[in-house]
Design the sequence.
């Protein structure tokens, strides 16, 4: 097959590189992020013998689009026929033309005729040489030749290369390295069992797949504009001429919309409905080609950078197009390249947070229950982050103190009673930046049943078993320390107490949940409100029959106060629903759930009339409720206290009390960290509102008029990290 002997000089094994045999756990190290078979290259070329279900249908159609094959005169492609030597040469010459490469550099020393079938070993060599001729240092993956003629792939160290066992044992260095290069580039996956079968023939259908995968690593893209996702939250926009070659300095207009609003992105006359659209990559004037649009580089490609993906809306659809200066979108998106992004861009880590699945207010765990502890890498705005390239490991040191038959569950362990056990483990976060471990404890004396130890007529004292588990987390590698401000730990340490003490109400053991977070403040008279109070014990379980009274204070203070009913008892879930009358004394009402906390663990909860108990309002039973006034035409500026996306409403902390502000599709939105707010969509604005768990973001609302349905207000939301 070869006209020269330069490439068959050695049949020795390749030596130390590549160094690992391909097996089920092997993965290509240099797969293409984008593809040549997109846009118009996915159309049906109508070969009569290539059915819709054919395994290589898409590859065959793509090959025909680029003119690499024209099939036979009878309208067939003959996908199962072997590729002959002559056909292989034609395939390679036409592929080189589509990729803008020198065909002579690819096939110059191969015979130009012959009907004998080509073998997979020679096929791999030719395709590898095509990639050497068609890629450069600016390509995502540059394929080159070493001094001995073997192949190299940029970004892949020789020690990381894989090899096919049968290729290593039967082919020369150059052929063997070609097969390995195609594997690393995800062009060839072998024939199974870690083999390449270099002496086997190649069907025309399989050849189409090999060539189209190789073209993905070159500049070959369909004529006009195509858009592809090369990473979560990222796209590559390509502009090509009629020969599929890059077009440099082409103006590109790029814009996006929430996926669930795509049907509303264009008007009936085909023009853009701009309130639904957001410029991408700094594009300020959507749907028009102008001097401010970005342009393609020498590669014919444009990367607009990270794009905000509205996952809750089903993704974000991105459009891209090119034209002459002054051209506008007039046909409702016909001819525009588009893609729907559903994955957000990965966040780089700058710290870690440690959390548990212990509910708020719970300070004891029943013996036998399990607590899950999560270490999660976080980045900007405390968003979950992915693992660093070098990995991130943490050392977890667990210390157990066991106390038996103690009288006070809140007391510290004593040297006489406590036994100690220390264990250490090293954990590495997964690709998502997370790792978990569990903690549990068994009752050291399950037979005692906490019986009193006193004799008849004497004061009973209950005996309690307890296990305190303290874990400490420190960084082993990766350098991302635990951020205490967003963790349920202090300096990477926390103590979890397992106990068999009897249930009792505890501080932070009550919560108030209003039916709604805000209501419109009555200008005179009164208004009704309903809240639910839940009382739990130290284990987080609801307490039945516990008495609850409501009270409140107002800001600013007024002469009148709200009217509350008498004390009511909780149901079997520990909850009670309480309605009351608000008398308009102030705009922020601080509700308090008053109920008893028994400080003596030997007693049993009763009600608020038991003078033998220490009665204290539960500290966790407080809630600010907002009685808001409609904002005026001056707008509003301040902290976002609450929001209701379904009602398109936000409550802003104004100087005269909470202000109720409405928003709609006609308004303009800007969202970001302080000083980096960018013009965006209503969907992105709502996504930021939903993510504000601490209600500490701030907003400036200007040009606001709630009485005018055509009003265009401007909302500038400054995002503050959750705490």
Sequence:
């Amino acid at each position: 097959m070869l006209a020269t002997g330069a490439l068959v000089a050695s049949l020795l094994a390749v030596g130390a590189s590549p160094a690992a045999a391909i097996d089920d756990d092997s993965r290509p190290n240099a797969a293409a992020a984008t593809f040549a078979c997109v846009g118009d290259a996915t159309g049906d070329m109508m070969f009569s013998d290539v059915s819709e279900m054919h395994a290589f249908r898409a590859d065959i159609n793509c090959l025909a689009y680029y003119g690499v094959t024209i099939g036979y005169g009878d309208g067939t492609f003959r996908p199962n026929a072997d590729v002959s030597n002559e056909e292989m040469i034609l395939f390679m010459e036409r592929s080189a033309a589509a990729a803008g490469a020198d065909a002579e550099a690819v096939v110059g020393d191969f015979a130009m005729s012959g009907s004998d079938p080509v073998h997979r070993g020679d096929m791999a060599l030719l395709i590898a040489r095509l990639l050497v001729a068609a890629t450069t240092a600016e390509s995502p993956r540059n394929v080159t030749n070493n001094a001995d003629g073997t192949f190299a792939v940029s970004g892949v160290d020789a020690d990381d290369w894989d090899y096919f066992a049968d290729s290593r044992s039967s082919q020369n260095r150059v052929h063997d390295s070609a097969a390995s290069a195609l594997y690393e580039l995800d062009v060839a996956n072998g024939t199974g069992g870690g083999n390449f079968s270099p002496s086997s023939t190649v069907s025309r259908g399989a050849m189409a797949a090999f060539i189209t995968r190789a073209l993905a690593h070159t500049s070959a893209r369909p004529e006009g504009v195509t858009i592809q996702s090369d990473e979560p939250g990222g796209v590559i926009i390509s502009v090509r001429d009629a020969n599929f070659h890059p077009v440099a300095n082409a103006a590109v207009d790029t814009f996006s919309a929430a996926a669930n609003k795509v049907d509303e992105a264009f008007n009936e006359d085909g023009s853009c409905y701009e309130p639904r659209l957001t410029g991408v990559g700094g594009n300020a004037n959507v749907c028009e080609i102008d001097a401010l649009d970005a342009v393609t580089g020498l590669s014919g490609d444009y990367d607009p950078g990270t794009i905000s993906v509205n996952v809750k809306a089903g993704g974000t659809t991105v459009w891209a197009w090119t034209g002459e200066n002054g051209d506008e979108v007039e046909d409702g998106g016909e001819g525009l390249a588009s893609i729907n992004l559903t994955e957000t861009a990965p966040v780089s880590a700058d710290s870690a947070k440690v959390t548990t699945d212990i509910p708020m207010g719970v300070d004891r765990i029943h013996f036998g229950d399990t607590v899950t502890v999560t270490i999660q890498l976080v980045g900007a705005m405390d968003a979950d982050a992915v693992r660093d390239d070098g990995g991130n490991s943490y050392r977890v040191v667990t210390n157990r103190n066991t106390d038996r038959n103690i009288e006070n569950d809140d007391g510290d362990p004593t040297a006489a009673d406590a036994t100690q056990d220390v264990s250490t483990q090293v954990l590495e976060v997964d690709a998502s930046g997370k790792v978990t471990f569990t903690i549990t404890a068994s009752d050291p004396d399950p037979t005692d049943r906490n019986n009193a130890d006193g004799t008849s007529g004497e004061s009973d004292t209950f005996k309690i078993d307890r296990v305190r588990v303290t874990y400490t987390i420190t960084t082993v590698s990766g350098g991302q320390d635990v951020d205490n401000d967003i963790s349920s730990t202090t300096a990477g340490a926390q103590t979890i107490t397992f106990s068999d003490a009897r249930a009792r109400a505890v501080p932070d053991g009550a919560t108030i949940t209003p039916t709604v977070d805000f209501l419109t403040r009555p200008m005179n008279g009164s208004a009704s409100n309903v809240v639910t109070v839940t009382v739990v014990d130290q284990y987080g379980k609801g307490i039945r029959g516990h008495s609850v009274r409501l009270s409140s204070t107002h800001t600013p203070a007024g002469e009148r106060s709200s009217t509350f009913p008498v004390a009511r008892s909780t149901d079997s879930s520990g909850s009670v629903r309480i309605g009351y009358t608000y008398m308009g004394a102030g705009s922020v009402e601080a509700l308090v759930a008053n109920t008893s906390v028994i400080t003596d663990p030997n007693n049993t909860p009763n009600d608020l009339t038991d003078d033998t108990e220490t009665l204290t309002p539960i500290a966790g039973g407080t809630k600010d409720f907002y009685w808001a006034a409609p904002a005026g035409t001056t707008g509003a500026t301040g902290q976002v206290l609450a929001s209701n996306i379904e009602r398109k409403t936000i409550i802003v902390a104004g100087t005269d009390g909470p202000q109720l502000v409405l928003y709609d599709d006609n308004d303009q939105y800007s969202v970001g960290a302080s000083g980096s707010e960018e013009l965006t969509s209503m969907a992105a604005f709502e996504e930021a509102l939903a993510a504000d768990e601490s209600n500490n973001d701030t907003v400036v609302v200007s040009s606001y008029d709630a009485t005018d349905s055509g009003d265009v207000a401007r909302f500038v939301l400054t995002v503050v990290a959750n705490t």
Observations:
- Confidence is low (pLDDT under 50) at residues 1-18, 453-459, 600-615.
- Residues 363 and 538 are 6 Å apart (CA to CA).
